[in-house]
């Protein structure tokens, strides 16, 4: 908790923000419409005594009363996916369409890949890329469980993802999602389940700055893989401006064809991105990017930028 005090001037209503970190994470799920209708899932889960409450995102629920949500028959049948509300937002900004060629550059465990597949009814061609070999098998398991059939799994370093096909022709995508590896500050709540705790690391400005260096390489490659007019969504689950606005600022400085676009999401309160941090000044368009805070959206902290290739 002490670490977050560095964000006192960045995060509005800072004391309310700190209070929100005292509360446990709510449990959220996304109905997998590739396999089941929302009404049928609700009916089946209610038989376990599970209470479901609609969230502002379509096909998403907060739930309680389900002790082992990752071990029901419906889970194994792929009828739902356990996914925090904030994690469902980047695909909504990406707005994938049927028939498009889409790249998810850092895909495991596949929450957003499977959401994109559901949004496009398995009718877009999706590349799901992941570097970590162990996490590749988790990705494969989840995509199979969820009935995702439109995906090609690849194992490249995102920053070195090939820009050419084997015959030498350029490889360009209509949409690229870069849900980057990050320090994960946005996952923190004071009381965490064991599985959540395992995913957090020690927070420090130095760790953020180091991560920022990798993210800057990744965002340039993500952008270079877009066709003209294509859309890149960059997201992280951290508050650190080094990993958020500074990374997008780096892209804008190095790629004049990159243009940040403003967005909103119905029913979700978003905060403007910052245009300065400590001794750093960022491009004014960084205010068009969006921050997701747990005292406004009861879920993980997130950052989302929508970038068009002109
Ligand atoms: C934030 S997680 C992605 C979560 C995923 N998009 C989802 O919604 O389920 C970031 C992922 O990037 C992977 N990763 C880390 N460094 C990478 C790199 N250089 N290239 C590709 N993937 C990388 C990590 O192993 C991790 O699985």
Characterization of the model:
This protein has helices spanning 14-20, 38-46, 73-76, 89-94, 111-119, 133-145, 194-197, 205-224, 245-254; strands spanning 27-31, 51-54, 60-64, 80-82, 101-104, 125-129, 151-154, 173-179, 226-236, 258-261, 271-272, 276-277, 280-281, 290-292, 302-309. With 310 residues, the chain is an alpha/beta fold. It has two domains: 2-25 and 85-309, Rossmann fold (3-Layer(aba) Sandwich); 27-84, Sun protein, domain 3 (Alpha-Beta Plaits, 2-Layer Sandwich), CATH 3.30.70.1170. Strands 5, 6, 7, 8, 9, 10, 11, 14 and 15 form a nine-stranded mixed sheet that branches. It has a four-stranded antiparallel sheet with strand order 2-3-1-4, with helices on one face. A two-stranded antiparallel sheet has the order 12-13. The termini are far apart. The site of S-adenosylmethionine has 18 residues, from helix 5.
Instruction: Classify the oligomer.
Output: single chain
Report the portion of residues in β strands.
15-25%
Quick one: biggest sheet? Answer: 9 strands, mixed
Estimate nothing, just give the exact number of structural domains.
Answer: 2
Look at the structure and give the mean pLDDT: 96
Question: Strands, helices and their partners?
Answer:
Layout: H1 14-20, E1 27-31, H2 38-46, E2 51-54, E3 60-64, H3 73-76, E4 80-82, H4 89-94, E5 101-104, H5 111-119, E6 125-129, H6 133-145, E7 151-154, E8 173-179, H7 194-197, H8 205-224, E9 226-236, H9 245-254, E10 258-261, E11 271-272, E12 276-277, E13 280-281, E14 290-292, E15 302-309
Parallel strand pairs: 5-6, 5-8, 6-7, 8-9
Antiparallel strand pairs: 1-3, 1-4, 2-3, 9-15, 10-15, 11-14, 12-13, 14-15
Helix pairs in contact: 8-9
The structure holds S-adenosylmethionine (SAM).
């Amino acid at each position: 908790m002490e670490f977050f005090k560095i964000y006192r001037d960045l995060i509005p209503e800072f004391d309310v923000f700190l209070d929100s970190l005292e509360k446990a994470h709510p449990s959220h799920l996304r109905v997998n419409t590739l396999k089941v209708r929302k009404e049928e899932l609700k009916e089946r889960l209610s038989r376990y005594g599970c209470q479901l409450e609609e969230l502002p995102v379509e096909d998403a629920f907060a739930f309680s009363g389900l002790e082992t949500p990752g071990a029901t028959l419906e889970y194994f049948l792929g009828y739902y996916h356990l996914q925090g509300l904030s994690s469902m937002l980047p695909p909504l900004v990406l707005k994938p369409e049927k028939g498009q060629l889409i790249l998810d550059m850092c895909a495991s465990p596949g929450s957003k890949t499977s959401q994109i597949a559901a949004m496009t009814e398995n009718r877009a061609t999706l590349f799901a890329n992941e570097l970590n070999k162990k996490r590749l098998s988790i990705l494969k398991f989840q995509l199979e469980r969820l009935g995702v059939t439109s995906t090609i799994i690849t194992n490249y370093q995102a920053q070195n993802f090939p820009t050419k096909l084997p015959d030498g022709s350029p490889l360009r995508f209509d949409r690229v999602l870069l849900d980057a590896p990050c320090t994960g500050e946005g996952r923190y709540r004071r009381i965490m389940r064991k599985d959540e705790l395992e995913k957090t690391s020690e927070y420090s400005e130095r760790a953020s700055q180091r991560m920022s260096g990798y993210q800057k390489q990744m965002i340039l490659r993500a952008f270079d893989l877009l066709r003209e007019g294509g859309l890149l969504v960059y997201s992280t689950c951290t508050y650190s401006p080094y990993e958020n606005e500074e990374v997008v600022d780096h892209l804008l400085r190095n790629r004049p064809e990159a243009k940040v676009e403003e967005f909103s999401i119905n029913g979700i309160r978003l905060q403007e991105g910052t245009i300065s941090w400590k001794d750093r000044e960022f491009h004014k368009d960084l205010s068009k990017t969006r921050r997701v805070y747990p005292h406004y959206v009861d879920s993980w902290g997130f950052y989302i930028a929508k970038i068009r290739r002109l």
